[in-house]
Amino acid sequence: FLAMKVAFSNEMANLCEKFNVDVYEVMTGVGLDPRINPHFLRAGCGFGGSCFPKDLKAICAMARSLDVNMRLMNAVLEINELQPMRVIELAESVAGDLKDKDVALLGLSFKPDTDDVRETRALPIFEELRKRGAKVTCYDPWAMNNFAKVAADVEFATSAREAIKGKDLCIIQSDWKEFKDLTASDFELMECPVVIDGRRTFNPEKLINRGIMYKGIGWENREVTC
Predict the structure, then answer these.
(1) Alpha-carbon distance 105 to 67, whole Å?
(2) Phi and psi for 87 in degrees, rounded to 5?
(3) Which residues pair with 194 in a beta bridge?
(4) What would the mean pLDDT of 166-193 be, rounded to a whole number?
(5) CA 156/CA 144 separation, integer angstroms
(6) Are the beta carbons of 168 and 102 closer than 8 angstroms?
(7) What are the CA-CA distances from residue 128 to residues 35, 43, 62, 213 (Å)?
(8) Distance between CA atoms of residues 25 and 45, nearest Å
(9) Is there a catalytic annotation at residue 45?
(10) Is the C or the N end of the chain the one with fewer CB within 10 Å?
(11) What is the rounded radius of gyration, in angstroms, for the C-alpha atoms of the chain?
């Protein structure tokens, strides 16, 4: 059910962008209903880890063996598999063709405060960036060793600030405190200060007011180019 709430938020985020409204404001309103509550109504790159994906897949596999079609659970899994590509679409909406672009990918674990990369959404994002010809520099406070075991030929930075310096784009996949502590001045060290925020790590208005180009899942669709 929690995984379903995440998928619901992500699907609503993609719709909210078309209406130029903030999905986080919408989900705050939804969560005010005591029958629902606000927990897990946070749009982003999708869920990962050792529980949600494995448990849903197990339920669906068991159901298939009994000729039961778990339409809702299958849809949750499908939404989650597609959601990382929304990050790529947002990056392309700003930078165009990603070939030869220098990209910083911050956050490799499936969530902050862990080194667990099982089902992390960073992996499909990384692989798609590489597939499209981007040069990717990765950083995570704890998970870089584990990420190197599941991804090939990864270039790592030693800090978030080092990762973003001189880059064309910064993609945030998990919202570690170290990333939240980055300031507009740090992003101004980029070749072109563009933030693709996959976890609503920052207050968009604060970055935009400092001249940082911001794109986030479920955020208002403002035309920005770099």
Answers:
(1) 41
(2) -65, -45
(3) 213
(4) 96
(5) 8
(6) yes
(7) 38, 20, 31, 22
(8) 18
(9) no
(10) N
(11) 17
Tens of pLDDT, residues 4-63: 999 999 999 999 999 999 999 999 999 999 999 999 999 999 999 999 999 999 999 999
Predicted TM-score of the model (pTM):
0.95
Answer yes or no: are the C-beta atoms of 31 and 37 closer than 8 Å: yes
HEC states along the chain?
CHHHHHHHHHHHHHHHHHCCCCHHHHHHHHHCCCCCCCCCCCCCCCCCCCCHHHHHHHHHHHHHHCCCCCHHHHHHHHHHHHHHHHHHHHHHHHHCCCCCCEEEEECCCCCCCCCCCCCCCHHHHHHHHHHCCCEEEEECCCCHHHHHHHCCCCEECCCHHHHHCCCCEEEECCCCHHHHCCCHHHHCCCCCCEEEECCCCCCHHHHHHCCCEEEECCCCCCCCCC
Token pair, residue 34, equals 């005591």
Q: Pairing relation of β-strands 194-197 and 169-172? A: parallel
- Label residue 83 by pLDDT band (50, 70, 90): very high
pLDDT > 70? residue 223: no
CB-neighbour burial class of residue 101 (10 A; exposed 0-12, middle 13-18, buried 19+): buried
Q: Which amino acid is at 16?
A: C
Query: Are 3 and 76 a contacting pair, CB within 8 Å?
Result: yes
Identify any residues that bridge with 172 across adjacent strands, giving them in sequence order.
106, 197
Nearest to 40 by CA among 78, 4, 13: 4
